[in-house]
Amino acid sequence: MNTSTQALHADIPRQRWLRIIPPILIACIISYMDRVNIAFAMPGGMDEELGISATMAGLAGGIFFIGYLFLQVPGGKIAVHGSGKKFIGWSLVAWAVISVLTGLVTSQYQLLVLRFLLGVAEGGMLPVVLTMISNWFPDAERGRANAIVIMFVPIAGIITAPLSGWIITALDWRWLFIIEGLMSIVVLVLWAFTVYDRPQEARWISEAEKKLSGQNPGRRTAGHCR
């Protein structure tokens, strides 16, 4: 990246570290919680109530990743050519609905269908958020921004284990899916009012800064993902 382009990108307010990264990180944490909470629900009574064998439990875990493959590439293209914000927004709605429905299942086959659909709904998340980050952060900062977002894996692990254990102990495994599903709706509200696909769309950036950031490297870099 040349000096003039770096100077242009420097005009995008530093607020982006507080306005863009945290909502993206939180959305990623929620997606991971929805992905792994079945590991706590199974020994928490789900396996006994639904008559799930060890083989079926393994299939329920694995079928998620079959669905996960579907939107990996399309997700990145949607973020480049369309709106990653809208994509993740609708994904949060899907995560909420699927998670709540998982808390209402009455058979292991219903569980398999919902786990597959959850995989499809989560598949485009990471390509989309990484593309959005490329719109906001120049090469010199993008590695740090991506590293912060990728921290969602250990952070979600730290949060999910005790939270899931507490919910199952206080209520039951069904409420684990329902409560964590409803958390997606809370995050959706935060997402809708804080995140923008590109600096040019952000309301908290002045018009003069938007004109400068219109020439930012993020757009061109995002185009390389095609």
TrEMBL record:
Q: Which InterPro entries match?
A: MFS (IPR011701), MFS_dom (IPR020846), MFS_trans_sf (IPR036259)
Q: Name one GO cellular component term.
A: plasma membrane
Q: Where are the transmembrane segments?
A: 20-38, 50-71, 87-106, 112-133, 145-169, 175-196
Q: Which residues form the Major facilitator superfamily (MFS) profile domain?
A: 20-226
Entry membrane topology: Multi-pass membrane protein
The places in or outside the cell where this protein is found are: Membrane
- Entry keyword set: Cell membrane, Membrane, Transmembrane, Transmembrane helix, Transport
PROSITE patterns this protein is in? Answer: MFS
GO MF entries: transmembrane transporter activity
Q: Which Pfam families match?
A: MFS_1 (PF07690)
- Protein name per the record: Major facilitator superfamily protein
- Native organism is Enterobacter cloacae
